């Protein structure tokens, strides 16, 4: 290399060589800027051609020779292809994409597709500097664009079509995949269960599946949302990130799984009861989304009195809350399509202009949670845990159709029923009510999920009302009061007799006791005494 | 074979930096003609007040372009490089050994991109002009012939073909009915190879008149429409001896 001295510039010369007989073929591996790939961090990598495009000869053809074959079939087929001008592209190994796996099983995967037209008009050369200072230039034989492969499950074309049709109804898109995962888990679980359980499950599943898919989702969602809300309440509140939701969803999925296995044994004759409950809702709501629910109306009638009223009150409260909660619902991961549907229903209710004097958020929260709870219960199988919990509760409340996990309905009634069931039934991990946010406001005991955990009897230490959508417990009251100041009247409204199953006198008494215990702070607003708690 | 697919990551770990240079076609052609160790030219890097100027000078002996020696066109010698950044993109270079082993190795990462441009000169312009002329010639050409082509008339009946046809007919004559048992043997051996046959194919194989053959086939075989296009003959179930079938006969 000769160096030329110059005052303002320095130049160095290097020899350029183009090695002739290299056995190596150079190619470019191009990554997208956004993927932030740093090759030096790779500890181990494997790369192979993706041969999935190769169609084995005779794959689709009839057996060759002997049985099943025709004389001269191949020639005829070829002649036919030529006649129609069908040209099958030759499979060139060189042009197939690469599959790159970095850092083993847990690492990233990339697919490298060959970019065409690179070597047509200009050639690319790789200049590397040799130890002796000269440059060596190698021609580039191929350019492959590597894109990361998604490890998470994606929808197949059919599933995507399905979802596309539902896109106007689904508000919470995040939970679509979660639902699928849970469904798969459910299926997996069932296979493992013993026959008795299997029988039950089938029943549940049959019921649930027989209904609208959404129902199941709802149930799941309901279950999940409570979990969700409970767990996430402290953390994010409404602004959960998707990632977080996913994680939570996974956690919940596991919980659900466990729950289902736990609860499956408990579910027993929930089908009929459940369905009945939902019917009530349906009759009240004009939702046309749940077709299967219509089938259940008859059953709904059987349900004890309170349900109608309960659902009505729920509806009212829900309406106001819908707008608020919609946002929250969307955040919830578990909410399946059902939830969004429910939300929409709620919206409809709102827009219908029904004004409600009920407290805004609280009642809505209640209703919402009830709704979600119902939803959660419905998913046929996933909910195995939750729904079954509800159904098992039935025992404690004879004559009340137990909420069949399978028969979830979007209606408020169903939700209310489920809540009731849920409360009676001990829920496993607590949680899953979709109305996570709402649950925040509501006393945990009111959500079926959390209450589910306890025995069929209302949680000890709390108020006793029999299973109902909203339990009048200290916890519930506490939550209301923490959230916002309320008058006694408001509180009473919250714990409507139809929902709690208590008579008004009982309600008053219990409420009074609770207030004594809680000893909330008082303040006068609008000439009315409001109670509130700060924590 | 355990090594197959394993990527040698030494280049990546060392973070070997390489340049990706886009080179014009004619230049790469010239480089292909390099002899000996493959020296093609010199690369000069000047650092002019912070800016690097890179230029490549082609070796003298490589400026002769094949096929154009008589036209006195030579490839230009000076080629400044335009340096470009890689951008956000990560470009890695990997190699495959083409012979036998197919080992894959990561050689390095591209740190600099460059485009090799010829310095504008008379010779380059000439070269380009010639290239354009060549490429603008149409691939297909209509040409007027002076004399009409007379050696492929279309006769009414193709003479050569006709003669061949007649000869064949004379030779074979009408197909003679062979012994029934012989025909059966032929049929069975044919059906051993394939299950379904077209009647024409069977006539071809057995060289029997169609009617006679059909009679025999009616005995031992069935004519099935089969749903698929052609109507084919196959042996009756009791005569079949394919794998998976138990009944055999004869």
UniProtKB/TrEMBL annotation, chain A:
Biased composition (Basic residues): 374-384
Keywords: DNA-binding, Nucleus, Phosphoprotein, Transcription, Transcription regulation
TM regions (residue ranges): none
InterPro entries in the cross-refs: TFIIF-alpha, TFIIF_interaction, WH-like_DNA-bd_sf, WH_DNA-bd_sf
Acidic residues biased stretches: 218-236, 264-292, 309-334, 356-365
Family named by the database record: Belongs to the TFIIF alpha subunit family.
PANTHER family recorded: GENERAL TRANSCRIPTION FACTOR IIF SUBUNIT 1, TFIIF-ALPHA
Reported function: TFIIF is a general transcription initiation factor that binds to RNA polymerase II and helps to recruit it to the initiation complex in collaboration with TFIIB. It promotes transcription elongation.
Protein's recorded name: Transcription initiation factor IIF subunit alpha
Organism: Myripristis murdjan (pinecone soldierfish)
UniProtKB/TrEMBL annotation, chain B:
Organism, as annotated: Myripristis murdjan (pinecone soldierfish)
Protein name: General transcription factor IIF subunit 2
One Pfam assignment: TFIIF_beta_N
Top-level lineage group: Eukaryota
GO MF terms, alphabetically ordered: DNA binding
CDD domains: TFIIF_beta
Matches recorded under InterPro entries: TFIIF_beta, TFIIF_beta_HTH, TFIIF_beta_N, TFIIF_interaction, WH-like_DNA-bd_sf, WH_DNA-bd_sf
An annotated GO cellular component: transcription factor TFIIF complex
Coiled-coil regions listed: none
Limits of the TFIIF beta subunit N-terminal domain: 16-109
SUPFAM superfamilies: Rap30/74 interaction domains, Winged helix' DNA-binding domain
Subcellular location(s) of the protein: Nucleus
Family as reported in the entry's similarity comment: Belongs to the TFIIF beta subunit family.
């Amino acid at each position: 290399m000769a160096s030329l001295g110059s005052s303002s510039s320095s130049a160095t010369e290097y020899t350029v060589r183009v090695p002739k007989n290299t056995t190596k073929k150079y190619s470019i591996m191009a990554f997208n800027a956004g993927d932030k790939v740093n090759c030096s961090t790779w500890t181990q990598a494997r790369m192979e051609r993706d041969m999935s495009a190769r169609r084995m000869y005779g794959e689709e053809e009839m057996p060759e020779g002997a049985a099943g074959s025709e004389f001269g079939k191949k020639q005829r087929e070829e002649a036919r292809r030529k006649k129609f001008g069908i040209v099958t592209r030759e499979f060139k190994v060189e042009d197939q994409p690469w599959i790159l796996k970095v850092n083993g099983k847990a690492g990233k995967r990339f697919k490298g597709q060959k970019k065409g037209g690179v070597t047509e008009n200009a050639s690319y050369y790789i200049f590397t500097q040799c130890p002796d200072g000269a440059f060596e230039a190698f021609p580039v034989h191929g350019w492959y664009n590597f894109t990361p492969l998604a490890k998470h499950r994606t929808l197949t074309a059919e599933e995507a079509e399905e979802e596309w049709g539902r896109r106007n109804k689904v508000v919470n898109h995040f939970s679509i995949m979660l639902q699928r995962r849970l469904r798969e888990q459910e299926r997996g679980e069932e296979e493992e269960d013993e026959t008795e359980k299997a029988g039950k499950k089938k029943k549940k599943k049959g019921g649930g599946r027989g209904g609208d898919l959404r129902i199941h989702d709802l149930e799941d969602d309901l279950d999940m949302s409570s979990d969700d809300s409970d767990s996430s309440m402290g953390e994010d509140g409404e602004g959960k990130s998707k990632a977080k939701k996913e994680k939570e969803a996974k956690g919940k999925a596991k919980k659900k799984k466990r729950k289902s296995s736990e609860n499956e044994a408990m579910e027993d004759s929930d089908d009929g009861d459940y369905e009945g409950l939902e019917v009530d809702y349906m009759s009240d709501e004009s939702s046309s989304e749940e077709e299967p629910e219509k089938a259940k109306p008859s059953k709904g009638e059987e349900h004890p009195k309170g349900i109608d009223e309960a659902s009505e009150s729920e509806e009212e409260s829900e309406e106001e809350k819908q707008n608020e909660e919609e946002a929250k619902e969307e955040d919830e991961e578990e909410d399946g399509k059902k939830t969004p549907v429910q939300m929409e229903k709620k919206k409809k209710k709102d827009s219908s202009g029904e004004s409600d004097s009920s407290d805004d958020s609280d009642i809505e929260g209640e209703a919402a949670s009830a709704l979600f709870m119902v939803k959660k219960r419905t998913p046929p199988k996933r909910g195995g845990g939750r729904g079954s919990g509800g159904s098992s509760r039935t025992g404690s409340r004879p004559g009340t159709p137990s909420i069949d996990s399978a028969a979830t309905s979007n209606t408020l009634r169903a939700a209310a029923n489920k809540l009731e069931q849920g409360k009676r039934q001990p829920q496993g991990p607590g949680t899953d009510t979709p109305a996570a946010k709402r649950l925040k406001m509501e006393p945990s005991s009111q959500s079926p999920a959390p209450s589910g955990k306890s025995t069929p009897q209302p949680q000890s230490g709390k108020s006793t009302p029999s299973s109902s959508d909203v339990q009048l417990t200290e916890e519930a009251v506490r939550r209301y009061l923490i959230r916002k100041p309320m008058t006694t009247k408001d509180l009473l409204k919250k714990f409507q007799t139809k929902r709690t199953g208590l008579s008004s006198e009982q309600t008053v008494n219990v409420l009074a006791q609770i207030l004594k215990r809680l000893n909330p702070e008082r303040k006068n607003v609008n000439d009315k005494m409001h109670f509130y708690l700060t924590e | 074979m355990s090594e197959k697919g394993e990527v040698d990551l030494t280049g990546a770990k060392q973070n070997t930096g390489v340049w990706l240079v886009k080179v014009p076609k004619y230049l790469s052609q010239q480089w292909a003609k390099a002899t000996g160790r493959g020296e093609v030219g010199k690369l000069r890097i000047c650092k002019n007040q912070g800016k690097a100027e890179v230029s490549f000078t082609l070796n003298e002996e490589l400026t002769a372009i094949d096929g154009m020696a008589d036209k006195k066109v030579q490839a230009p010698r000076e080629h400044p490089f335009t340096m470009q950044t890689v951008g956000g993109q990560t470009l890695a270079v990997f190699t495959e050994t083409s012979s036998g082993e197919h080992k894959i190795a990561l050689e390095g990462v591209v740190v600099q991109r460059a485009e090799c441009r010829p310095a504008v000169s008379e010779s380059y312009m000439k070269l380009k002009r010639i290239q354009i002329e060549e490429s603008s010639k149409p691939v297909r050409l209509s040409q007027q012939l002076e004399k009409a082509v007379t050696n492929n008339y279309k006769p009414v009946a193709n003479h050569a073909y006709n003669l061949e046809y007649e000869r064949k007919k004379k030779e074979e004559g009408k197909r003679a009915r062979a012994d029934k048992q012989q025909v059966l043997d032929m049929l069975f051996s044919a059906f051993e190879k394939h299950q379904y046959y077209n009647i024409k194919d069977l006539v071809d194989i057995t060289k029997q008149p169609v009617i006679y053959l059909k009679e025999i086939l009616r005995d031992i075989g069935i004519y099935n429409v089969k749903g698929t296009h052609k109507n084919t003959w196959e042996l009756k179930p009791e005569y079949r001896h394919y794998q998976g079938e138990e009944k055999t006969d004869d």
